[in-house]
Amino acid sequence: MGRAGGLVMAAIVLGLALTLALIAALDPPAPRASAPQISGTDAPPDYGDTLRRCRTATEADPECEAAWETKRRHFFRSGKSDQ
Length: 83
Description:
The chain is an all-alpha fold. It has helices spanning 3-26, 48-54, 62-76.
């Protein structure tokens, strides 16, 4: 393929790129999907204040350990105790 063939190929590729760019620019964006709703069984337990307080705890606190364990179980979706 000579110089003329290379120019033809470059023109074809450039034309396809331009066509794709125009289609993308003129195509309206797809509507955004709404966030999935969380049911009561999937909702995380509300330990906000307890966990905030426990982040800086320096001593063992049974309430903190229970709150973190519940949060951990919810995160890993494990309703059973470790076996």
